[in-house]
Amino acid sequence: MARATEGLLPAYLVVGSDELKAKEVVARLRRRLESGFEAFNLDERTGGADTDAADLLASLNTLPFGTGFRLVLVHDADRLAKQASEAIVAYLADPNPGSVLCLVAERLAKTTRLYKAVDALGARSVIDCAPAKRWDLPKRVMRMAQTRGMEMDEAAASELIARVGESTTMLDQQTGTLCELCRGAGTIRRADVERYVTRVAEVRPWDFLDALCARDAARALELYGMMQSPSEVALVSMLVARLRELVCAQALARRGRGADLARTLGKQGWQVKNHLRWARGFPSGQLAGALVACARCDRALKSGADAKTAFTQLVLEVCGAA
C-alpha cells in the first residue's frame, strides 16, 4: 500500500527541553493534515503509566479520513509504561502507511529500544530540541523580535533572559508583549524590559559579577538586593576568581596578546568575550586594590561583621564608587 504521507516518515521523536522548538515541530506536522479533516485525523494524548498499549495501537492502525494522513501525537513519551513503549517498537517494524506517529519527550536515552526504533527510520526521524546554550539565547530572543517586525538590542535580550529565565516559551511570550508595547519606537531597549517585565527568575551570581566587572555600582547593588538569601562569603570567592581572570586579561593586553586569553585561562571564547573590555575599565593598580578589598571583606565576614554592610562596601570599592 502506498503511503498517504508523501515526504513524511512513519514516526518522529521530538526530544529535548526546548519547549518552543518542540511546539514549532508539532505545529508543522499539524499543518500538514488535510484541510477539513483535522479533527478526524488527529489523536493527541499524553503518555504515562496508565497508557493503554492496545488502545494506542488501535489508533495508530486506524485509516485516515480523506486522502491525507492520520497524526498520532504522544506527549511525555518518556513516561510511557514499558508495555506501551514495547508495543510502539513492534508497531514500527511494520507501520500503518496512512499514519504518522509523533513522540514528544523531554528526555529519552539513545540506548532505549524506543529511541533506537525511531532512529532506524531515517536521518530526520529524531528531531533534537535541546535547549539553546545560555550564551546563544540573546541572539535567539533578538530573532523572536525580528520575526515580529521589531528590533531588540543584545542588552535588552540579556535583561529579558535575566528576568524571566531560559524557558523559550516564556521568552517568546514576553517578547511578543514587548513588541506590542514598543511598536511605535520600532526598537526594544533594556529600559523597556526593565519597565514592562516583572522579574520572576532568581538573580544568577554571574549576572551580578558581570555588573561588578563593568563597574556599574547601581546595577550591581540592584541585583545584590534581589538575591534570595545570598552567601556573601561565596560571592566574595567567586569575585576573587573573576578579578584574577581580569588581571590575566590586563597583562595579556599589555603584551598585545589579548587574543590568547581564552586559551590561557582554559575557557571557551564566549566565557571571556567581555574580559578585555572590563579589564580596560580598571586603571593601573585598581585590580590589585580590588583583590585587597576582597580579602578585607572576607576577613570581616568571617569575624562576625554585618554581612550586608561589609559586602555593600566591597561592591562600592570594586566599582570605584566608595
Would you mind describing this structure in some detail?
This protein has 322 residues and is α/β, with parallel strands linked by helices. It has three domains: 11-128, P-loop containing nucleotide triphosphate hydrolases (Rossmann fold, 3-Layer(aba) Sandwich), CATH 3.40.50.300; 134-196, Helicase, Ruva Protein, domain 3, CATH 1.10.8.60; 205-318, Zinc Finger, Delta Prime, domain 3. It is built from 16 helices and seven strands. It has helices at residues 19-31, 38-41, 53-60, 82-91, 113-119, 137-146, 154-164, 168-181, 190-196, 205-213, 217-226, 232-254, 261-265, 275-280, 286-302, 307-318, and strands at 11-15, 42-46, 70-75, 99-105, 126-128, 151-152, 187-188. It has a five-stranded parallel sheet. Strands 6-7 form a two-stranded parallel ribbon. Strand 3 (70-75), helix 4 and strand 4 (99-105) form a beta-alpha-beta unit. The longest helix is centred in the last third of the chain and has 23 residues, at 232-254. The protein is elongated, with a radius of gyration of 26 Å.
Offer a quick outline of the entry.
This protein is α/β, with parallel strands linked by helices and 322 residues long.
What is the topology?
Layout: E1 11-15, H1 19-31, H2 38-41, E2 42-46, H3 53-60, E3 70-75, H4 82-91, E4 99-105, H5 113-119, E5 126-128, H6 137-146, E6 151-152, H7 154-164, H8 168-181, E7 187-188, H9 190-196, H10 205-213, H11 217-226, H12 232-254, H13 261-265, H14 275-280, H15 286-302, H16 307-318
Parallel strand pairs: 1-4, 1-5, 2-3, 3-4, 6-7
Helix pairs in contact: 3-4, 4-5, 6-7, 7-9, 10-11, 12-15, 15-16
